[in-house]
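Write out the 3D structure for:
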Amino acid sequence: MLKISALEALRAFVECGSVSQAAARLGRTQPQVGRLLAGLEQSLGFALFTRERQRLSLTPEGRRFYQQAERVLAGHDGLAQLAGQIRGGQRDSHLRILTAPQMANALLGEALAEMARRAPDFTASIDTRVRLDAEAVVGQEHFDLGVTVPPLQHPGLRVEPLCEVEAVVVMRRDHPLAARRQVELPALVEHDLIATHARSLLRQRLEQHCRQAGLMPRYRFEAANGVVVCQMAAQGLGLALADPFVALSAAAPQLVMRRFLPAVPLPYGLFYPAWQARSETAQVFAGLVSEVAQRQAEQLMRRLRRG
């Protein structure tokens, strides 16, 4: 049976970089932490570490194991915090929220600020993940709600619509196409493009439209993160198809957005774990997120239509 103390020693080692520093963080001796790590490795039955010149480093298997162990520890930390709140007679006013990094400011910031004004005892932890696929989300033992771009289908999740925007073409403000109110597909593919990763909804939709029109996109650069894609476009490295909320989060003054035709709808959704009841705090906060998201989406689309 795995001990939490051993997993905590592993986390401290990974975050601190050495057994001695991990021992200092945990308030233990270096031999004690060494024994915890050795015992964990023995109980697992595979090598967590390589040992070179008396220094430890994670094996590929160790890194894979640690990724899941980190989730378990996050759940344990959440349980410890909840137990403290219950002992102190506090109501359930803490939320654990999952979202992609670029959505944290665009959709959650205003709602968090309003919730904090309404409820002085409200607290939240925001867990940002670059990829929010269903299996990864369900693997999170501890969260109350999340925000994502569907599809996110899994029997362990309940997903509700939040708002909808359309993909935009982003570019540096001095790009020749910036003078247009909207950019059509034939004009887009005449220029160098910055692509998102191959599995992204944006890239799949763009390539689908290109196949139907018999056109070939001119990919020159690629980046997995949408914010990075927008920042590269702002540097004049090419055009990109982007989520407008992500473009706003890129904080790139030279970046401009233009409508893209044919339209590529981007629906947003709230998701909840099906294995637990929603708290009153989660219900109220979800309502605030919905109000903010719908208002921002409407304002954004009106602005794009006006050019």
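The chain is about 50% helix and 25% strand.
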